[in-house]
Design a protein that fits this description.
Number of domains: 2
CATH topology of the largest domain: Phosphoenolpyruvate Carboxykinase, domain 3
Order of helices and strands: HEEHEEEEEHEEEHEEEEEHHHEH
Low-confidence stretches: 1-11
Strand content: 25-35%
CATH architecture of the largest domain: Alpha-Beta Complex
Structural class: alpha+beta
Radius of gyration: 19 Å
Largest sheet: 9 strands, mixed
Oligomer: single chain
Mean pLDDT: 89
Shape: globular
Number of helices: 8
Number of strands: 16
Amino acid sequence: MHDLRQSVGFLDGPNEPLPRGRCAMDLPLGPILVRVEQMPIAWEPFVPQHYAPFARPVAADRTADLTIRCHEGRGIVVALPPPGGSTVIDVEPQGPARFTIRSHWQDGWVDLARGIGEVKLTERRYLPFRMSLENFLRVASQLLLVERQAFLMHSAGVLDNERCYLMFGPSGAGKSTATANSAPRPALSDDMVLVDVSGDVPLAHAVPFFGAYPPLQRQRGAWPIAAALRLRQHQSERLERLSPARAVATVSASVPFVHELGIPSERLTRLVARLCGAVPAYELYLTKSARFWELIETECP
């Protein structure tokens, strides 16, 4: 089991209060640059721990595609789920390009046309603070990325021969296990990958959104996508090619926040169809061993 304290590192536990301070960062995410200003936390050690090697100090000579200003507040914004329940993220359109984004300990909005947004963070304990900031950034980024012919995909990304294999599926499908069993092949993430279909070749970009992936193994960059692999845990390994229609439907189901964001389904379908028209998609049945790579290396073109 993953030890949260190993991720926290500099804190005694997930309920410890964050040290006070103020900082700002530039966060490159594939084709966009997100700037976060007035974060109510010192740069060290929070930003390097969770956003390296992506975050950079604000560059005065660069214009961000989206600038988010932070504020502090108090209290519960959205009712907490019952024990064992999922995090609730409420997203509502307020116009053609403006959305509110609210969760348990954050209340914010973005205006894509103006390239600005604000988020009020209401909890200073480590885990709620980190989750609130990251959930807001994930949703805001997804909104903007779709406008730029790209999208965040709930997927692991593993590199082999300078190409990226997307390994996706719902929670429990085996993304973290497949990532771990792919070593020594480097991985972009065990949780989320940015897919850019704006060019002739679909690219997978690493982003600073992870599950349990160790911080020291994270890397930046973009690589051509070799295949999309929908994971299913099984007693034996096998690989089945998906039809074009099923590939589009299967990949679309792993693009988070779409229904909540009110993104027109035809827009997302076009982006996913572009990906699936350029790279093969498979159903990968795998055990808890690394033998599935023998299938991938033999059967993927």
